[in-house]
Amino acid sequence: MSNRNQEGSEKLRRAFITLLEVKPIKEISVKELVAEAGVNRSTYNYHYYAIEDVLEDVIVDFTRGLRESFTLSSSYGHTSKLKGFEVEHAVIEYFESRKKTITTLYKAGYWLMFMDRVEREFENIFRGYSMLFITDKGEKEEMSEGLSYELRIKEFCYSIIADLQFWMEYKAIISLEEVMSVVKHVKHVHLLSAKRK
Asked: Is the pTM of this model over 0.85?
């Protein structure tokens, strides 16, 4: 996609979120969307067939950015370890930067669909790492495959999603960092480090 086309889709996504803040998706017209985005109808037609496609693109763009927030960080190279606090920091930083998008999707009733995609993306990000866990009994376990590994990945990802849900329920009036710092003390499994296999 050319830079010009990419810029057009970015403008349409931003305009969509702005409109979704004040009205349901069924009341958003293409005419209104392109006016808000400052682009012409042909730009919309190039990228989308229906308004619902813009919603899908917003979610795809979010999950793509989530993956990049981990993979493009210089401290998360192919051989580096990814520690639990670094995972949390990366999540906090990215979600705080996209707070308007998240809050709007939550209020508009798309939270479950959105979080399902985000959870799957988390699993894809962390799968392929050898993970060192500490159990609630203080025992350390390192694993990189198998059913137990898959379950631990899911549990860890689910714990992050639960933090995000709690954050939204408080209408994001407290920082995500505050939520995660409190909730992590009651998690049964903590990711201590992760190393790419």
From this structure: no
